Amino acid sequence: MTESAAPRDMPAQFAPVAAQLQVGAQVVTADVEFSRADLIRYAGASGDFNTIHWNERFAKEVGLDGVIAHGMLTMGAVIAPIVEWAGAPGAVLDYRTRFTAPVLVPDASSGSPEQPTAFLTVIAKVGAIDEDAKTVRLDIEVADGEAKVLGRTQAKVRVK
Amino acid sequence: MAVNTELQGTSYALPEPYEVSREAIAAFARATQSHDAAHTDPQAARALGYADVVAPPTFAVIPAQRAEARYISLPEAGIDFSRVVHGSEQFSYTRPIVAGDVLSAVCHVDGLREAGGHAMITTRTEIADAHAAPVVTVTSTIVVRGGDDD
């Protein structure tokens, strides 16, 4: 490896090693939780102040069962444990998803609005390995109980 | 009001570039529960070979959605935002975004079709740095649900 390589060409020191991975192997499992406060925090950080993500009355008026998480909050939180596995944020070269079902985030019935009221599970498996390019494709499943909330979710990650 | 399919092939640029700050990256990382030290600690980022703190992979949605809004909010686009549902999203990186980047963004309306009373719109936003070198392509699909009264 040359010293002049741009950051994108430098695998992280603790990056997974392609030769040690197997297609089908489950490499990441994680729980992702959202509270109403998390939706406000994401609205502020992203600039997406769409009313359906913070106002119950408006969300119901437009046909939803209640306030829902930003699809992009779910997408953003799901990749965090993948980044941890990959060893560096820049190791994620491509990330795609389809939004298949809304994630309802009810107001906590009592106590702090910081209490999580939506609970997602994330499972990532190795879908393909390119040993020449030193990349792997992870196939990611994201569920809210029984319901899949993201579909065809894939991340292409640089490995060693 | 129907979605205007004649706008397929048009493009919309941010009037001013988006300047990436450490604070914006830290706020976005916190909001997306992204705890990697390289998002907030310049030394940790440099140890990984980055020039400064690194944005989480979906951070590019900020300049992308600003450029998309240039199109979506046009009266002649005919898009009722209260009927918009996000269909899909993709980020294809040439290099990661770091603090200090000055990003241009141009949103291209690639696909615009109507089916069963709904409209499906695909936009592709090309994000480049101050040297006009490509950074990331953000592809987004939205669905504008048809109303009962259409």
Describe this structure in words.
The complex is a heterodimer of chains A (160) and B (150). With 160 residues, chain A is α+β, with helices and mostly antiparallel strands. Chain A has a single domain, classed as Hotdog Thioesterase (Thiol Ester Dehydrase, Chain A, Roll), CATH 3.10.129.10. Chain A has three helices and five strands; from the N terminus they run E-H-H-H-E-E-E-E. Chain A has helices spanning 36-46, 56-61, 71-86, and strands spanning 26-34, 92-99, 118-130, 135-144, 147-158. In chain A, a hairpin with a 4-residue loop joins strand 3 (118-130) and strand 4. The radius of gyration of chain A is 18 Å and the shape is elongated. The relative contact order of chain A is 0.25. The model of chain A is unreliable at 1-9 (pLDDT under 50). Chain B has 150 residues and is of the alpha+beta class. Chain B has a domain at 9-20 and 56-144: Hotdog Thioesterase (Thiol Ester Dehydrase, Chain A), CATH 3.10.129.10. Helices cover 19% and strands 34% of the residues of chain B. Chain B is built from three helices and six strands. In chain B, strands 1, 2, 3, 4, 5 and 6 form a six-stranded antiparallel beta sheet that branches. The longest helix of chain B has 12 residues, at 61-72. The radius of gyration of chain B is 17 Å and the shape is elongated. Strand 2 (92-99) of chain A pairs antiparallel with strand 3 (84-93) of chain B, so a sheet runs across the interface. Chain B: This is UPF0336 protein GSY69_00455. Chain B: InterPro entries: FAS1-like_DH_region, HadA-like, HotDog_dom_sf. Chain B: Belongs to the UPF0336 family. Chain B: It comes from Brevibacterium rongguiense. Chain B: It holds the Pfam family FAS1_DH_region.
